[in-house]
Design goal:
- There is one protein chain.
- This protein is of the alpha+beta class.
- It has five helices and ten strands, in the order E-E-E-H-H-E-E-E-E-H-E-E-E-H-H.
- It has a domain of about 120 residues.
- About 25% of the residues lie in helices and about 25% in strands.
- Strands 3, 4, 5, 6, 7, 8, 9 and 10 form an eight-stranded mixed β-sheet that branches. A two-stranded antiparallel ribbon has the order 1-2.
- Bound molecules: zinc ion.
- Zinc ion binds next to loops.
Length: about 180
């Protein structure tokens, strides 16, 4: 068990579970690697959208949620990630955004973050499903894409592995708060 995390009573099983923080990224890797002056001149980023205007093309990204199933736990491990979308799908999503009554839709996207513990997770193909009520879209990797992250997603990970990932995140956050690695 981990210390310092709030607990909640689970509606599904009636047991107490630790309230795990989500593992989140504030931006896609394609944005993170840009020099500051390029970010300023050629990119727009907010909590849910990112656009990068290159000379040859414009890249468009949205923030999404992924739930990694965990054995022995009702709720999974939540990830906040970015995927790239085609111009058409990006505009369709932007059009729905903020409209609580918009119907759910399905898009195709490429994963745009490096998830620790795996060889590159960039460009894993994802199904993106928008949700009603302004919740972030959920993503699922394409099951036939051969990658350890995809296999873990469909098989589920152990409770110990999930706790290790949460602890790693908490360690990074506490180091940031103490000024380490700035
Ligand atoms: Zn439960």
């Amino acid at each position: 068990m981990m210390s310092g995390l709030a607990k909640y009573t689970c509606e599904a099983c009636g047991q107490e579970h630790e309230d795990w923080p989500a593992l989140t990224w504030d931006s896609p890797l394609q944005y993170n690697i840009l020099p500051d002056e390029v970010k300023k001149a050629r990119a727009d980023l907010d909590s849910d959208f990112c656009v990068i205007r290159h000379d040859a093309q414009v890249d468009r990204f949205i923030r999404v949620s992924l739930v990694q199933p965990v054995h022995g736990r009702c709720d999974g491990l939540h990830y906040g990630l970015w995927v790239s979308l085609s111009e058409e799908k990006f505009l369709a999503y932007a059009d729905k955004y903020g409209n609580r009554e918009a119907d759910a839709a399905r898009y195709f996207g490429w994963l745009c973050n490096e998830i620790p513990g795996y060889d590159s997770t960039l460009s894993i193909p994802m199904n993106v499903t928008t949700r009603i009520g302004n919740l972030r879209p959920v993503v699922e990797p394409h099951q036939d894409f051969d990658h350890p992250f995809v296999r873990d997603y469909y098989r589920g990970i152990s409770l110990a592995e999930a706790e290790r990932r949460v602890q790693e995140l908490l360690d990074v956050v506490s180091k940031r708060e103490s000024g380490y690695g700035q």
